[in-house]
Prior knowledge:
The structure holds 2 protein chains of 2 kinds. Chain A is α+β, with helices and mostly antiparallel strands. Among the domains of chain A are: 91 residues, Alpha-Beta Plaits, CATH 3.30.70; 83 residues, Alpha-Beta Plaits (2-Layer Sandwich), CATH 3.30.70. Chain A has 7 helices and 8 strands; from the N terminus they run H-H-H-E-E-E-E-E-H-E-E-H-E-H-H. Chain A is extended, with a radius of gyration of 29 Å. The N and C termini of chain A lie far apart (66 Å). Chain B folds into 2 domains: 198 residues, no CATH class; 76 residues, Alpha-Beta Plaits (2-Layer Sandwich). At the A-B interface, helix 1, helix 2, helix 3 and strand 1 of A face strand 1, strand 2, helix 2, helix 3 and helix 7 of B.
Amino acid sequence: MSKSSREPISDRRKFILNMARGAGLATLGGFVWSAYVDEVTASTLLLRPPGALMEEDFLKTCIKCGLCVEACPFDTLVLAAPGDHKPVGTPFFTPREVPCYMCDDIPCVPVCPTGALDEASVTKDGVLDIREIDMGLAVIDQESCIAFWGIQCDACYRACPILGEAITIEYAKNERTGKHAFMKPVVHNDVCTGCGMCELACVTEKASIFVLPREVSTGRAGDHYIKGWDKADDQRVKDAKVINTKTRLSEKSAMDSLNDSGDLY
Amino acid sequence: MKTVWNNYRYLILRRITQIGLLVLYFGANAWGWTLLQGNLSSSLILGVIPMSDPYAALQMLVAGAALAMDLLIGVAVVTVFYMLIGGRAFCSWVCPINMVTDAAAWLRDKLEINRVQNGKVPVKRVTRYWVLGLGLVVSAVMGVTAFEFISPISMVHRGLVFGMGFGWAAIAVIFLFDLFVLKNGWCGHVCPLGGMYSLLGKFSLIRVHHDEEACTLCMKCKDVCPEQQVLHMIGKESIPVLSGECTNCARCIEVCDDDALEFSIRNLANNNRGASDEISK
């Protein structure tokens, strides 16, 4: 212990030290807290209720009151509990357990007090329209879907609440047998709402058609690839930002690697 | 029986309120009751009157969310109620964590843990205001409602209404903290929601009043109070408890054998602490 620590400490010094201590502890706590929050909100593989804002906005707007959960007549929606490894308290659903049954009156959305479930996004011409909802997009694993093996199965097609529009059946010749047809399900990106009825209906052990959030299940071509046959699509290339990719040339002189035997033998 | 009622009447009423509210919320989710839907973060009375947690709304605001009208009305309802009438009553009459921390405080007293644990307290009472502010800073920086992702209050209440998961661990953490680390640690030192309601409830009308002439200085009230610093006037002055940190739990009123403490509407004429000036403004 140094000599000075035995001397009385001045009020000024005490005040400054206490403030510094408070600020330091707050910084310490702030970093721990931020790191924790960052981790627990990182989950991207979950399906939100109808009308949910984009995940980033949803996380700051949802107050976790569960009114949407209580409004859901099918117990589709649940609130993430600690241990679910999802942003705690926020509503989500698991189609393989209970899918969204796409109620015509969308009871879960208008009850939201904060607008995290945005009524305007599911309203068309002034009335709630269940076809406007967009919770995700069904994707098919063609390796495990038995329809792609040639076995006749249209369980997902039949289960789809937008029958014949969100999922259609595509016929193709089965070259293996030479006399049978494949009846392959095809999901239509622009119609599918991500309700998950198909995922629940799928007959394979683990569903071969399943709903993923659009952020996960879709790609993005970017502004530099356009459909030349589509006039409207031309616009995108005009809006595209210029990307300059420069590769620095090596300043070293080129070396004849085959004949330069300096490092051989 | 009469003494039990006399000594625990407010405690009994508080437990009835706390558990009753939980049952109403639970019934809304389980059986479709409409008296009180949602949870403590945001709820609806009879499907009409919204109520929302003002601290959650503040976090949303600084996180950059657009605040909806229903939310703002809900915040106004809650704020006006506690600001004008209830004071910090949320903490002792509504919050489910109160039962956990009361249990810890009771056991701590029975085990006489204070006698083996001496020395400086590790956390000061002003910490709650730091946590309150820090929650807003983290919300603003991270763009999420920071406290709502760690709040044991929300976790426990949501858990009781919608399914607990590992939420019981939050109860255990608070119970053990209050039992072994610090007396009234969570509610009286750390909880930012307590800090929020301390600030809001500063000027509310319902107050505990002290009658110095009836007081025999037995100090039972101070022993039982979870916020002892608010009872600085005991045996000294006949004034109301004016600190916003008083939770209006009324334990002091019950344990007083001398009728020196009683609830009443804030007495504007008698209070000589200058609060009457603040009120009349």
